[in-house]
Amino acid sequence: AEMAAARLSGTENRLVSLPLSRIRVIMKSSPEVSSINQDALFLTAKATELFVQYLATYSYKHGRGKEKNALTYTDLSHTAEECETFQFLADILPKKILASKYLKMLEKEKRDGEVGEDNDEGEEEEDEDK
Q1: What is the pLDDT of residues 50-75, one digit of tens each?
Q2: Residue scoring higher pLDDT (98 or 124)
Q3: Are 80 and 87 in contact (CB under 8 A)?
């Protein structure tokens, strides 16, 4: 049986592109996981690979990829934002914004946090700062 398992794992490695050892490390990083069955490891790797393929294909088809004949980060982040299936990736694939715009957003959040949202004083304070 061990010989068959060894042959099988050699075949499995050719059926997936992602490194099984890395996927095992990621799976083991979860405190709930104590041991990992070879079949579960292989299926997780294959499912991840197919998911990434689906995300890339969808993003390419629905983005500007076809125009440029390339898949861009913007295509991926647009998919995460617009497609309900991929919205759980929105934090991982955020829209790119300029650092200056991000800093302004942080400042606004900080001001909104200090002054109540219903309070009009926030706008007056903003004018004084200018």
Answers
A1: 999 999 999 998 888 777 788 989 89
A2: 98
A3: yes
> What tokens does 125 get?
């304070």
Question: CB-hemisphere CA count at 13 Å for 21?
Answer: 0
| Percent of the chain surpassing pLDDT 90 | 36
The C-alpha atoms of residue 112 and residue 130 are separated, in whole angstroms, by 17
CA 123 – CA 59 distance, rounded (Å): 40
Distance separating alpha carbons of residues 84 and 71, to the nearest angstrom: 20
What does CATH list as the number for 20-114? 1.10.20.10
Q: Write down the domain spans for the chain.
A: 20-114
Give kind and range of the element (H or E) at residue 96. none
Which conformational region is residue 66 in: left (phi greater than 0), alpha (psi within -120 to 50 degrees), or beta?
alpha
